[in-house]
Each structure stands twice: as C-alpha cells, then as structure tokens.
Amino acid sequence: MNTSSSIPPINKNEAQGIARPLANYHPTVWGEFFIHLLASENQIDHAQVQQRVEMLKEEVRTMFSMSSTAYDGRRVDEEMNLVDALQRLGLAYHFEDDINEALARIHGSQMMVVSENLHVVSLRFRLLRQGAYEISSDQFNKFKDVHGHFRENLRSDIQGLLSLYEASYLGTSEDGILEEAKSFCKRELVSMLDRLQPPLTTEVVRALDMPLIRRIKRLEAREYLSFYEAAEGRIDVILELAKLDFNRVQSLHQEEIRGLTGWWKELGLIKKLSFARDRLVECYFWILGVQYEPHLAHGRMLMAKLICLASILDDIYDSYGTFEELLLLTDAMQRWDIGEVEGLPEYMKTYFMALSDTIKEFEDMLLDGQKSYLVRYLKEEIKAIAKAYLKEAEWCNEGHIPTLQGHLQVSMISSGTIVLICGFFLCMRDIATQDILDWLASYPKIIEAAAMITRLMDDISSHEFEENRQHVASTVRCYMEEYGVSKEMAHKKLREMGDTAWKVMNEE
C-alpha cells in the first residue's frame, strides 16, 4: 500500500508552546547513496557467477565425502577445519546437511577426546557446543598441572591459546574451568602481542576485542576472508567460493537496500516526523547481523521496515510526545483499530497508519500458508513494548529512578528483543507455528537472557548521550544510585550481568 499520500503531515502549529524533550538527532549520512551506487557500480554477471558457485559447491561436497571414509585422526582434524572455515567465511548455509553430518561424525569420534593437542581439543569443543551437542568441559583438565593450574608449556602454543580462548566463551554456569581458561588465555595472549606477526596479530587482537561467538557473522566473513587468503593451510576451492559468494550476496544486499531506500523515500515518514531518527541503513544492517542468507530476502526487508518503525516509536515516547499524548497513543495501540485513531495528534496518526500498513505486509506474506492469523502474536508484542515505553515515560516525567530489577522488568521489554525475534520467526515461514509463538510469548530463559544482554549493552553505550537531556534513567544510573558506586563500577557490574546472561543462552 502506498502510504505517502494517505498519511497526513504533522500540523506544525500543534507543537507550539509545548515543551518536548527533543534529542536533536543528526540527519542520515546515506541519503540516496545506495540507489546511485547500484546504478553505476554494481554490475556483475549473476548467471555466470551462479554457475561457477554451483561447480565449486560440488567440489566442497566431495571434500566432505572424502573425509567421511577412513575416519582416522587426520580425517577428523581435516573435517573440523573444513567446517570451521565454511562457518567463518559465511558459506555454511550452502552446506547445512553436510555440516550436520560432519558434526555427528566429529562427536562420535573418540580420537580427539584423547588428543593432547590444545588447538584440536578446543576447536572440537567449540564446534560441537555451537552445534548444540552436549560435551563436557572437563576434558580441559588434562592441560593442567598437579597444582591445578594450566601447564607452563601451553604459553608458547599460540594457536592453542587462541582456540581455547574462543572456546571459553561457550561456557555455562557449570563450566568453571572455562572461566579459568579465559583468564589464563587472555593474560598470555596480551603478553605476547608485541612478538606476533601478521596475520596472526590481527586474529589475536580481534579475539581479545570481541570473541568469535559474539561477532556479526557477515562482518566476520569479510574479515576472515583476508585472514584465510594468507593462511598456509588454505584450500583454494573454498577461497574462490568465499570470494564469489560474498560479492554475490553483497550485490543482493545492495539491491535490497536500494528497494528499501525507495520505500522509505516514498513513505516520507521522516519528513512528516522530523524529530525522529532517520536510520534506515543502520536498521537494515542490524538485520544483516542476524539474517544475511539470500533465501531470507523477503523477510529481511520486512524486518528492516519493522525495525525502522520500532525506532520511530521509541523516539515518539522518548523524545517528542507529551505524557498526555503518550497515554492516548498507548490506549489506541492496545485497541489496534485504524478507525479509532481520530483522537490522536496528527503525528501519531501518521505513525500508526504506517505501522499498520507494515503489519499488513506480514499478514500478506503468510497468507499463502494460511498462517496470517499468527501475526496477532507480533501485534501483542508491539502492544507490550508500547506499555513499557509508557512506563519509562512515566518514570521520566516524575524524575523517578527505580531499582535495577524494577527497571529491568520494564526495560528488557522495551529493548524490543522479543518483538524482533517474533518478527524473525514469522519471516521464517516454515517454522512459524502456534506452538513456537506460544513458547516465545512465555518469555523463556533464553529470550530473557537475550533481552538482558540487549538492554545492558545498549545502556552502557548510550547513557551518557541520553543524560544530556530529559530522559528516563538508564540501568547504569539505576545501579549507581542503588549501590552508591561510580559509573565505571556500574559498567563493570552490568557487563558481568551480561556475561552471566550469555552463559544462560549457551546453556539453553
């Protein structure tokens, strides 16, 4: 539906004389960049590239077939390296069945269990934990001395230390040895940085900055491509496939952002709601961090639209609406009836109509599978986030600083995590079932942990900017006030809470 002609602009006179907590966000830096980029620079022969990609994929599948025969220690090692390379290069989506079968073989092999090679044992542990296999961390005890400390001779095993460090971030609350390993490896890796040579230096620096399991997969694919190209044990077939596939998928992503830029321009929402953030490209990039695969293109574009509109809803509650206006909007969203928005200010009508149109796109997407009724789950989560935003606006209006736990009960919902996960499930139409969405609506531990991480990391990075204007207290401020500590100590404690939440996600 073309909403640009159906939604009215803000009546600029309605805001006169009203004090609003404007954030004065900077305008977008992108404009129509992607439209012009594609017109002049993004010309590739898709048919020719696709043909070559298919040929290379068959060669890689042959490698899996070869590894599955005569499964000795060398074959296990080769297959683990193959799986690791494909995952890190962003190629795993081509080989899901092959990788699952390989992981089953790796899990069943006892050869690596008795290995004394720290890198091999650590890589096996990480691959299997990532693949949801039960595998004990007790196996790392064999790398300790009689005093219970990691052995001195491990300090010169750079590859082993790096692999163990990455594996340590797959720990749960029951894996105390992985916390020991993390501290040991970090200390040793930092101490040897000055003595390392590229490209290993870059790998170690990147690991210390952000462990592999927490990185954005698409960025990791590009970064690892350069590292893999310089690696001694590289496989040229995989390298060529990685380069072709990255460029091919990047071209698709650019096509998508071009389409979204056109939609955003036609919608004209930012011109009508000039107080809000214009962050289309950033919202799309956020989605790429979760879903980059070509077959998810339609859902990815819908999710980008949803995040853009969620961002604007946040801005309405956070940096423009008066408390009285926000009460009206929250009530209207609970009723979710486009015919009953006449009592809203014009800018809120504008927003609500745009949101309704986008939700209708979700319903249309699911129409063929007769699953459009499932969109009600998404609506309910949007209603919940509106209530959470209103509660935060109430705290802001009253100057109230809640306890940390009181804040989190509201702000984990306002983080938008469950709204976005619900949207993701709907976009993956095959798994969008009532049972799955009922499970999501029950707010299970893994979803709670994800929301906790999102909220804490967002507040740590943004609270100083937000405190320059009238704004609800952040979790950082709540912790400082409740426990009488400095900002730095609050950051430290909240990061520890985030690390605990990561362990819950690993366990679940």
Automatic annotation (TrEMBL):
GO BP: diterpenoid biosynthetic process
Keywords assigned by UniProt, alphabetized: Lyase, Magnesium, Metal-binding
Domain Terpene synthase metal-binding: 265-503
Keyword Metal-binding: yes
Molecular function terms from GO: magnesium ion binding; terpene synthase activity
Pfam families linked: Terpene_synth (PF01397), Terpene_synth_C (PF03936)
Residue ranges annotated for the Terpene synthase N-terminal domain, each copy included: 29-208
Official protein name in the record: Uncharacterized protein
Organism: Colocasia esculenta (Wild taro)
